[in-house]
């Protein structure tokens, strides 16, 4: 995420052209339009959620396998390394079906 801002002097005659790429124009919220089902997600699926890396995704899957799946999204609180702050940030992007 970088932007280039050019400030012209008041005597300079310039034209303005706005340009963005599709990936930089989309916020993280817009990239996650599909909810990730905690009971069927792969590690790659989980890593599409901001704040979930390879280790956390593996921990989520290990918890799922050890406990017969998630009963609710709140079960994520039982996964090692997921605290209140992480739950708050990922809750809008996950579901349990």
Automatic annotation (TrEMBL):
Residues of the Helix-hairpin-helix DNA-binding motif class domain: 44-63, 74-93
Record GO biological process: DNA repair; protein secretion by the type II secretion system
Pfam family, one: HHH_3
Gene Ontology cellular-component annotations: type II protein secretion system complex
Matches recorded under SMART domains: HhH1 (SM00278)
Molecular functions (GO terms): DNA binding
Domain of life: Bacteria
NCBIfam families recorded: competence protein ComEA helix-hairpin-helix repeat region
Protein name: Helix-hairpin-helix domain-containing protein
Species whose genome carries this gene: Streptococcus suis
């Amino acid at each position: 995420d970088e932007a280039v801002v050019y400030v012209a002097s008041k005597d300079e005659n310039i034209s303005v052209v706005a340009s963005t790429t599709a990936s930089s124009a989309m916020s993280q919220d817009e990239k996650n339009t599909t909810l990730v089902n905690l009971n069927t997600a792969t590690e790659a699926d989980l890593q599409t959620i901001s704040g979930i890396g390879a280790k956390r995704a593996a921990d989520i899957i290990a918890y799922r396998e050890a406990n017969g799946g998630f009963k609710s999204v709140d079960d994520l609180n039982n996964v090692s390394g997921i605290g209140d702050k992480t739950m708050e940030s990922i809750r809008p992007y996950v579901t349990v079906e």
